[in-house]
């Protein structure tokens, strides 16, 4: 069963007189991985809290399973929240509890399961994120990467159909971020849940999601298949993906139009987007992501409505896959380093020998 579809329409949020964003509309396709980008201070984390009902918007609707979370009763909202799992920036672990008790906490609070059942569920989720054997450790005794994975295990214990990731890469070095990204893709293959990731990490945005959105100037600048944003010629997109100073985004807020135009004119040679990277594929030995086929069918139907550059990128990505024309051949696999089989790599996420995610070929889809 695929994850739940989330329909957001005309959502607006303010704190007092300070408007955070207005008229945000998007649909998170069931079972797919979506990423929400944007400069610091644009309200991405506020959006996640609003989506789960922790903050109430002034306008708009959030519809899940035919229920509008903005207008429903508190009892119904409580039930809908059970569909969600959330990984917070710092893992949000209780410092006085060991990892087992931290991960077991939602089961003890929200279910009537026996301790034997809880033990089995916690063991399963800890194995999924590569923490088997660390049950008795306290959060203060482990690395930041391990805390992230413990937080993710806790987010998974109620088998949520929607999983929200609030800057999962925050505080992690590039190598551990890469392993966490692979873990996210592998978990999506195993759970078929709907994922939404808020991130600043450009590599994550380029390689992980099926869909990408971007918050900018207090509204959702765009949301759709990953190829739309990754081929967009909008100055704010180019500046963000290239990580450069010249462009509409300022240090603390958006620049005025004249300054942005002057900088872009002076830096004409910097125009353009980085080369599009292939999307991560599941690790060897993992089940195929069911979302891949569903997304392919969905994108095929809307292909004619997309910008020409995005259409071309999508066609290239499916060039070796007859399924775009109605067949169903599997995608060719590539190794981690781009070769036929890749190179053997040891898992350095936190310690040698960690088995989640496993190394090996088959992690990338052909470039497109």
TrEMBL record:
CDD domains reported in the protein's UniProt record: ABC_Org_Solvent_Resistant
Alphabetically ordered keywords of this record: ATP-binding, Nucleotide-binding, Transport
SMART domains the UniProt entry points to: AAA
Renumbered residue ranges of the record's region Disordered: 323-368
PROSITE patterns assigned to the protein according to its UniProt record, in alphabetical order: ABC_TRANSPORTER_1, ABC_TRANSPORTER_2
Domain of life from the UniProt record: Bacteria
UniProt GO molecular function: ATP binding; ATP hydrolysis activity
Pfam families (alphabetical): ABC_tran (PF00005)
Compositionally skewed regions (Low complexity) per UniProt: 323-335
Domain ABC transporter, chain residue ranges per copy: 6-242
Protein name: Putative ribonucleotide transport ATP-binding protein mkl
Species this protein is from: Pseudonocardia hydrocarbonoxydans
Organism placement in taxonomy: Bacteria, Bacillati, Actinomycetota, Actinomycetes, Pseudonocardiales
């Amino acid at each position: 069963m695929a994850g739940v579809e989330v329909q957001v329409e005309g959502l607006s949020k303010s704190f007092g007189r300070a408007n955070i964003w207005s008229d945000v509309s998007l649909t998170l396709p069931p079972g797919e991985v979506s990423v929400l980008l944007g400069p610091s201070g644009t309200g991405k984390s506020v959006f996640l809290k609003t989506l789960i009902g922790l903050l109430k918007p002034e306008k708009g609707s959030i519809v899940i399973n035919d229920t509008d979370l903005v207008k429903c009763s508190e009892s119904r909202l409580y039930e809908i929240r059970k569909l969600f799992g959330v990984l917070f920036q710092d893992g949000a672990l209780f410092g006085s509890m060991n990892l087992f008790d931290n991960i077991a906490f939602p089961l003890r609070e929200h279910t009537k399961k026996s301790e034997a059942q809880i033990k089995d569920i916690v063991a399963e989720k800890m194995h999924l994120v590569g923490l088997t054997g660390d049950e008795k450790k306290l959060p203060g005794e482990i690395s930041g990467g391990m805390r992230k994975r413990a937080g993710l295990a806790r987010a998974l214990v109620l088998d949520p159909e929607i999983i929200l990731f609030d800057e999962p890469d925050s505080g992690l070095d590039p190598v551990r971020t890469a392993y966490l990204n692979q873990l996210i893709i592998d978990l999506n293959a195993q759970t078929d849940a709907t994922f939404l990731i808020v991130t600043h990490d450009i590599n994550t945005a380029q390689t992980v999601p099926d869909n990408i959105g971007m918050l900018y100037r207090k509204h959702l600048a765009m949301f759709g298949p990953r190829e739309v944003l990754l081929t967009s010629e909008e100055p704010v997109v180019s500046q963000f993906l290239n990580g450069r100073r010249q462009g509409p985004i300022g240090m603390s807020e958006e620049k005025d139009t004249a300054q942005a135009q002057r900088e872009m004119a002076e830096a004409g040679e910097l125009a353009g987007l980085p080369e599009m990277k292939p999307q991560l594929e599941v690790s060897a030995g993992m089940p195929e992501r069911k979302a891949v086929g569903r997304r392919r069918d969905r994108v095929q139907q809307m292909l004619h409505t997309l910008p020409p550059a995005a259409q071309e990128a999508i066609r290239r990505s499916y060039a070796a896959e007859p399924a775009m024309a109605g067949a169903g051949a599997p995608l060719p696999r590539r190794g981690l380093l781009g070769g036929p089989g890749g190179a053997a790599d040891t898992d350095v996420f936190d310690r040698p020998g960690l088995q989640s995610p496993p190394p090996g070929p088959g992690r990338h889809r052909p470039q497109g």
